[in-house]
Specification:
The complex is a heterodimer of chains A (about 350) and B (about 375). Chain A contains 15 helices and two strands. Chain A is mainly alpha-helical and about 350 residues long. In chain A, a hairpin with a 2-residue loop joins strand 1 and strand 2. The relative contact order of chain A is 0.17. Chain B has about 375 residues and is α/β, with parallel strands linked by helices. In chain B, the strands form three sheets. A seven-stranded mixed sheet of chain B has the order 2-1-3-4-5-13-12, with helices on both faces. In chain B, strand 9, helix 10 and strand 10 form a beta-alpha-beta unit. The chains are: A mainly alpha (about 350), B alpha/beta (about 375). The interface between A and B is large, with 65 and 58 residues.
Chain lengths: ~350, ~375
């Protein structure tokens, strides 16, 4: 399987030995298994014909910028889905960490600064804030993981609870120090530059630094998933927790760590989100988990558990963002956008399940 | 059979994409024919379900059509990052002018980001504030390529407060259900962070009390002494009828006529919330024909609110002029795409409903008006 050319030769040799009926099945299987790619290709070609701006460098820069913004959340939530779970708290954790990063990063001379006595913004303070929000995300993840692992509660229930609790904390936080629920504004130039400063320009559109960070995070997650014992244990627990336990995997610790890692990713996403929106409001992060979960399932991270690849998650995020960008450029109203998104998630999962059932 | 089903699924998906993509490009093709220089106008709305903005959108589509412009409407589902993604995508798609109903109301930094992303493309902000406490004026002064069309945020609150005050003074004894000489009120706030909501919550009460106290009556008193905020807020920030109704339903459990502590007057940040409050009151037998009417005040003068006022179920609202807003935005956009600078486009508007803000020439106010029935 590792050598694609040898693999292709083997498939073509197999194909020659097939009779007519098998050949027909071979093609239908191939079309169905790759339906998503084929449809996306058709969709991209259609959009490019209707709206030539879609295939420009500037448009590509816009696309990868959006992908880089949505990827960290999907990478985090994917681990929970591999464990047959989910995480509904992701969006609110992003909101909370974005708010905390926001107040730490407000300009020193900003009139409506929430906490007046914070240190001046420099590299160390930015690094400390980044670590702090990642830690806060991780702690919420740890709480999720603990209740899931310790009491065998379904993650849906646990994370629904933490979602509500986190939102309560957000509202409380926004009312602190006479802020009265106002959006957190006046983010310092250093912070904005650290996250969103232009690395280079493609077709006149700046590519921000968080694209690079997303690449680094993706590489890190790939390493964790594929090259560490923890990653292998995660898949073992996801496919069959009982079997994993019998073969000596610490299910409790693995579940806790998966959720903690996910929380850390949300913390990072929150750090980015404030700069992306220009300010942080109490509603920041609302429903962010929906897009992340959708990206995962489109990319083949299955709710059946124990399956999923980092490359699939990237693909899923790309599919969602391509749909968004293309339909926005075509001027399709957003009601149809929701319908199309829903249809694609449904079909992608149905086709994915079909592969799974055939395997079984 | 299974295979057939799977193929059918894939087909449905393909059809959904093509079918939904088709109608939108049809007008674009028609538009290209009459005028070669047809401008690409993209309007970004903070949310699709806002009642008042839906009437603005309706009116605006008509206004634009009359001017030969086909706008492309985008909705951000109350999410600022979604809106920024939409804006960046529209810029990459060659938009000629951006008309923005900013999600995070009052965030001048977000407005600056949008302006920076737009570069040379003119931006017309409308309805939702792009700064608080004069920050919007700075943004407008620093950027010649933009304009703001909105309402003078405190004005609606002041007007609502005066309306409530006058009504209370004229009907004091009828409103005072438990005859304790004090009128207890409830306040429904639309969004914790929205400037308009904050001003309406503040002035709707303060100005009412000014009028009431000037007439020698005691000030309105919040019904729940334990709530020091003195308002109940839609936590989703959606100004929704549902949130207001849930609050009222809950309030009724401990505050009702039987306990002698019934809420005697309700002030709402908008008509949507007023509708929710009235629905709750009507379930309990108030505000219907022949029953006691608890005065409920809103802002916006939506069609539903006007109907409720006509029925006698609602007392008053402040007319937020959807037609006027739509006319102001579409005429400004038209002038800008024809080559005017935003400042000239704003100055060129001649309509008694509009007034240019005293602080800066690119900020236009659309007037409010009290409404208590035709």
């Amino acid at each position: 399987m590792t050598n694609p050319i040898a693999n292709l030769q083997r498939v073509s040799a197999d194909y020659k030995t097939m009779d007519k009926k098998d050949k027909k099945r071979f093609w239908t299987d191939m079309i169905l298994n790759n339906a998503l790619y084929i449809l996306m290709a058709i969709f991209i070609i259609y959009t490019a014909i209707e709206q030539p701006n879609f295939l420009t460098l500037g448009s590509f820069a816009n696309l990868i910028t959006q992908v880089a913004a949505y990827l960290p959340l999907a990478l985090g939530i994917a681990g929970c889905i591999v464990l047959t779970g989910t995480d509904l708290s992701a969006g609110r954790v992003v909101g909370l960490t974005a708010a905390i990063a926001g107040v730490f990063m407000q300009k020193t001379d900003f009139a409506n600064k929430m906490f007046a006595n914070l240190p001046a913004i420099n590299g160390w303070w930015i690094a400390a804030t980044l670590l702090a929000v990642i830690a806060i995300g991780a702690v919420i993840g740890l709480v999720n993981g603990f209740f899931v692992a310790k009491f065998s509660l379904h993650p849906f229930i646990v994370t629904l609870s933490t979602q509500l609790i986190t939102y309560g904390i957000i509202l409380w936080f926004f009312a602190l120090n006479g802020n009265n629920g106002q959006p957190i504004s006046g983010l310092s130039a250093e912070y904005k530059n650290f996250v969103g400063g232009a690395m280079f320009r493609l077709g006149g559109v700046a590519v921000p630094r968080y694209v690079l960070y997303a690449v680094i995070l993706t590489a890190l997650m790939w390493f964790i998933w594929n090259k560490t014992t923890f990653g292998k244990n995660m898949f073992a627990v996801g496919s069959n927790a009982e079997a994993a336990k019998v073969s000596g995997v610490n299910v409790f610790l693995t579940t806790m760590l998966v959720h903690t890692l996910a929380g850390a990713m949300y913390g990072y996403a929150g750090f980015i989100e404030g700069v992306r929106a220009g300010s942080v409001a109490a509603s920041t992060g609302l429903n962010a988990e929906c897009d992340a979960i959708a990206a995962c399932v489109i990319g083949g991270v299955s709710f059946v558990g124990g399956t999923g690849k980092i490359s699939g998650i990237i693909l899923g995020v790309f599919v969602l963002r391509i749909i968004f960008v293309a339909l926005t450029m075509l001027g399709v109203d957003s009601s149809s956008l929701y319908i199309i998104k829903g249809a694609i998630i449904l079909c992608a999962c149905a086709l994915d399940m079909r592969k799974y059932l055939v395997k079984k | 059979m299974k295979k057939f089903f799977a193929i059918a699924l894939a087909l449905v998906m393909a059809l959904a994409m093509v079918a939904c993509a088709k109608p939108a490009d049809a007008p674009a093709a028609e538009e290209a024919a009459p005028a070669a220089d047809a401008a690409k106008v993209v309007v970004f709305w903070y949310d699709e379900s806002d009642v008042y903005l839906s009437s603005v959108r309706d009116a605006m589509n008509t206004e634009f059509a009359a001017l030969g412009i086909t706008p492309d409407n985008q909705f951000a589902a109350n999410n600022q990052t979604t809106q920024l993604d939409q804006i960046n995508t529209a810029i990459a798609g060659g938009a000629d002018i951006l008309v923005v109903n900013q999600v995070t109301s009052g965030a001048s930094d977000t407005a600056e980001d949008i302006i920076a992303a737009a570069g040379d493309i003119p931006v017309v902000f409308f309805n939702r504030a792009i700064g608080v406490d004069g920050a919007d004026v700075t943004v407008l002064e620093n950027n010649a390529s933009i304009a703001f069309i909105g309402t003078d945020a405190p004005a609606a609150g002041h007007m609502q407060g005066k309306m409530i005050g006058d009504y209370v003074v004229a009907n004091y004894d009828a409103i005072d259900l438990n005859k304790d000489g004090v009128i207890s009120y409830a306040m429904m706030k639309g969004d914790e962070a929205n400037v308009e909501a904050i001003y309406r919550t503040q002035f709707g009460l303060e100005d009412a009390n000014l009028v009431i106290e000037a007439a020698g009556k005691p000030a309105l008193q919040y019904f729940d002494a334990a709530n020091t905020d003195c308002y109940q807020v839609d936590q989703a920030g959606a100004w929704s009828a549902a949130a207001a109704k849930e609050y009222m339903d809950t309030n009724f459990v401990s505050y009702n006529e039987a306990n002698g502590n019934m809420i005697e007057l309700v002030i709402c940040n908008n008509d949507g919330m007023a509708e929710g409050v009235i629905a709750s009151l009507q379930e309990k037998g108030y505000n219907v024909d022949g029953a006691h009417v608890v005065p409920v005040f809103g802002v916006d003068a939506t069609d539903n609110a006007k109907a409720l006022i006509a029925e006698g179920a609602m007392t008053g609202t402040i007319k937020q002029d959807a037609q006027g807003m739509a006319a102001a935005v579409s005429q400004t956009v038209k002038a800008i795409v024809e080559g005017s600078a935003p400042v000239d486009a704003i100055a060129g508007l001649t309509d008694e409903r509009f007034s240019i803000a005293p602080e800066v020439a690119t900020k236009l106010y659309v007037a409010y008006a009290p409404y208590t029935g035709e």
